[in-house]
Design a protein that fits this description.
823 residues, Leucine-rich repeat, LRR (right-handed beta-alpha superhelix), 5-stranded parallel β-sheet
């Protein structure tokens, strides 16, 4: 706790409270916002606008060029509660203008050119700001004494007398804000009669401030803030007016923008240390040397006097020095460090002072909080220092520390240390050869923004509970290197980690921040290995949206909201076509990501496909057709190699006759006699007389079909039961499509029921369904027409060499090949 948190600027507190109420209401009722808040700020206005809604509660006319206003401009605004007319050009102020604004509570007229005020009591006014105007004396009228609700009052003047404040001494003011530009006179003890809690005084820059006003301010309010303390005259003139008196009330004091000679600063500190001030904050402090050089004999007594006061002071608890600039170069600064180190206070902050070193206290110190941020401290700080047993918080960020092991030894004797901030330094750790020894009490450690690598896990406090390693060069968390059983919160954001670390060495881990690393595919078993983790911050990593990431996405659904920043911070980076997609919108099927399932599915589909193909092949007798095609191809190939000159086939027969052996009697007794004898002799090719001995049956069938103009198939139930008839039909059908001819003649000798035709004879079924066939008539009277139609279907002129010997039609074969079984 320091003075900055207690003595923050007070003049706007009430402003925020008033505006916040109306802003909150307007957020709940956005449809009526314009009706209750009117904002004309920065509108280049020269007069109060006439179009202000009559129900306006908050009116902002700041930062314009308004030089005056009248009662007519506010008479209709009966509900007005907040009016901000600061930063304008108003010269004269008449409070009677607001006589009809009975609800007005907040009025800001600061930063104008007001010289004269005509007063009137505004009963409900709580906040009145007349600071940064051109008043000579304080513009306090007797009517101010009737503003019993007034809590904040801002004033400005160049002269302050006791009589100027007599009308408000009975008011219970919360804050008095004084701006003293071109200040020339202050009558001592003018402020002491006031009853205020917070006093804020602003002097003009480069203007000599009044010590009497400083002392009276400390004697008037509990919280005092003074801005712009400078003194350009001789320090002897200042010291001659310096007298110490009692009755100081201030508990928290802030001095901002202090530019004084070192000897004057010492005198002021002497006054403060001899007072009840508990919290002192000095910001933007510049201390200079006197006009003449202050020799060592004059300087040391001042320090000794200050040291004596410091050692005796029991009230001071917190000292904060921020942005300190030293423009004295001729004294030993170690003397000053010694004064700071021996202070009998709880909290010391020296921020941004270019301080290169700080001494270890000579005796047991009461320090509980030390903040030396933004300085030039090195590894030599507090080495082997045993006089800080009560120190609990130590902040050393933005310095020049380099060795982590030396930092650990620095804390080894701090038995009460709980929090250490070493962020934004140059820390590194060599490795296992360098030992570390931390304070056993240390539970929170901030090592962010350093140069630490994986070896940092060899040098960590064993009892640490909260650890920050953000913005370092860590690539992995080595297993077995660190055994931090008490670690509950770990921050490794902005490093180079490629995966989520396990909790083998961190069994108590509850919060992990691993954002902005190089994690492409995080492990899905993180929560299994880290069962106590209740919050994981893993967003803003370059996730690769693939099958491996599916398990992590499912992990989010099962974690019950443990992923911090989901889904906005979890976005695909790879592949390019998915960049920018949130992980919650990325989905792949289980089949695409499960290799075993994919293999099993592919195998099953293959087996099913093979089974279907086998079934179809068997059902359609594909193997049989393949054998036939193979035999036909082999026959054509052999014919090509053996007799290439005969490849151009010459027709030798009118028709090839295919029939079942069981129908041979009808062929021999009816078909052959009626076609080969008599007028219009037809030369038939019959296997018994025309097959060539020595050739295979298939080859003979193919040759006979190719040498015949037509192929006659005698269909009957016996035919469909014959394997060889099926061969002959197949080859004839093949010729039909290959030569695009009409060479098939079907003779239905007996009716064939469809159910007796084997399934593989689908070609026969197709032919009988699509082609016209000749049916053998049972009546003899119709047979003459049957033969005539058959002769007409076969009619063709064969080559001359075969027509010349018509006697062959009457000759029965004298020799034949062995009968082949058509059945």
């Amino acid at each position: 706790m320091n003075l900055e948190s207690i003595m923050r600027p007070l003049r706007n507190i009430y402003v925020f409270a008033c505006v916040f109420t109306f802003t909150l209401w307007t957020n709940i009722q956005p449809t009526v916002e314009k009706e209750f808040i009117a904002n004309f700020s920065n509108s280049l206005l020269t007069n109060v606008p006439k179009n202000i809604p009559v129900h306006t509660h908050v009116l902002d006319l700041s930062h314009n060029r308004i030089s005056g206003f009248s009662i007519l401009e506010f008479i209709s605004l009966s509900d007005l509660q907040v009016l901000n007319i600061s930063h304008n050009l108003i010269i004269v102020l008449d409070f009677s203008v607001f006589i009809f604004n009975e609800d007005l509570e907040y009025l800001d007229l600061s930063h104008n050119n007001i010289l004269k005020v005509y007063c009137r009591t505004l009963v409900h006014l709580r906040h009145l700001d007349l600071s940064f105007n051109r008043f000579t004396a304080l513009p306090i009228c007797w009517e101010f004494g009737n503003m019993f609700h007034l809590e904040y009052l801002g004033l400005s003047a160049t002269i302050i007398r006791r009589s100027d404040l007599r009308y408000i001494i009975h008011l219970q003011l919360h804050t008095l804000f004084l701006t003293l530009e071109d200040f020339s006179l202050y009558e001592p003890q003018s402020l002491t009669a006031l009853n205020i809690k917070n006093l804020h005084i602003v002097f003009a820059a480069n203007q000599n401030f009044s010590f009497s006003l400083l002392y009276d301010g400390m004697s008037t309010s509990e919280n005092l803030e003074i801005v712009n303390l400078s003194y350009t005259l001789s320090y002897k003139d200042f010291l001659s007016s310096l007298t110490l008196v009692e009755n100081i009330k201030t508990k928290a004091l802030m001095l901002d923008n202090v530019d004084l000679q070192w000897i004057i600063i010492l005198k002021i500190f002497k006054l403060i240390w001899n007072s009840p001030v508990e919290h002192l904050t000095v910001r933007n402090l510049t201390f200079r040397g006197p006009v003449r050089v202050l020799n060592e004999y004059e300087f040391l007594p001042l320090l000794s006097s200050l040291e004596h006061l410091i050692s005796l002071s029991d009230s001071m608890k917190v000292l904060t020095l921020e942005h300190v600039r030293n423009k004295i170069y001729y004294f030993n600064q170690e003397i000053l460090y010694r004064q700071f180190s021996e202070m009998n206070i709880d909290s010391l902050t020296i921020y941004d002072a270019y301080m290169p070193h700080m001494l270890c206290p000579n005796r047991t110190s009461s320090f509980q909080y030390l903040n030396f941020s933004h300085n030039a401290l090195t590894d030599e700080l507090f080495q082997d220092c045993r006089t800080l047993p009560d120190l609990k918080l130590l902040i050393l960020k933005r310095n020049k520390f380099e060795s982590l092991s030396k930092v650990s030894f620095m804390t080894s004797h701090m038995k009460s240390l709980k929090y250490l901030d070493m962020s934004n330094n140059l820390l590194s750790h060599d490795g296992a050869d360098t030992q570390c020894r931390w304070a056993e009490s240390l539970t929170e450690l901030d090592l962010s923004s350093n140069q630490l690598s994986d070896t940092v896990f060899e040098c960590l406090p064993v009892n640490i509970k909260k650890l920050s390693l953000q913005s370092n060069q860590i690539t992995s968390v080595p297993k077995g290197m660190a055994e931090l059983k008490s670690l509950q919160e770990l921050n490794v954001a902005w490093n180079r980690l490629s995966d989520l670390p396990g909790c083998g060495g961190f069994p108590s881990l509850e919060i992990l921040n691993i954002e902005m690393n190089s994690i492409i595919t995080p492990s899905a078993d993180f929560f299994q290995s880290c069962p106590r983790v209740r919050e994981l911050q893993a967003g803003k990593n370059p996730f690769k949206c693939s099958c491996e990431l599916q398990a992590f996405i499912r992990l989010e659904r099962q974690s019950g909201g443990k992923l911090f920043g989901w889904p906005m911070a979890y976005v695909c980076e790879y592949p390019e076509d998915l960049r920018g997609m949130q992980l919650k919108d990325f989905h792949l099927s289980e089949l695409a990501c499960n290799t075993m399932l994919l293999l099993v599915t592919a195998l099953l589909l293959t087996l099913v496909l093979v089974a279907v193909v086998v079934f179809v092949c068997i059902y359609l007798d594909v193997p049989w057709y393949m054998r036939m095609m193979w035999q036909w191809t082999q026959t054509k190939r052999r014919a090509w190699h053996n007799h290439p000159e005969e490849q151009e086939t010459i027709l030798q027969f009118h028709a090839f006759v295919s029939y079942s052996e069981r129908d041979a009697l009808w062929v021999k007794n009816e078909l052959i006699p009626n076609l080969e004898k008599g007028e219009g002799c037809v030369q038939l090719c019959q296997h018994e007389r025309n097959f060539v001995p020595g050739k295979s049956i298939v080859e003979n069938i193919i040759n006979c079909i190719e040498k015949s103009y037509k192929s006659i198939f005698v269909l009957s139930p016996n035919f469909v039961q014959s394997e060889w008839c099926h061969y002959e039909l197949y080859f004839a059908h093949h010729k039909l499509f290959s030569e695009n001819s009409n060479s098939l003649i079907l003779i239905l000798l007996e009716p064939i029921p469809p159910y007796i035709i084997p399934a593989r004879y689908h070609k026969l079924k197709a032919l009988m369904a699509k082609r016209t066939y000749l049916e053998w008539p049972k009546e003899r009277s119709k047979r003459a027409l049957f033969w005539a139609n058959l002769r007409a279907a076969i009619s063709i002129n064969l080559p001359t060499s075969f027509e010349a010997n018509e006697e062959q039609c009457d000759v029965t074969p004298t020799s034949s090949i062995s009968q082949y079984a058509n059945d």
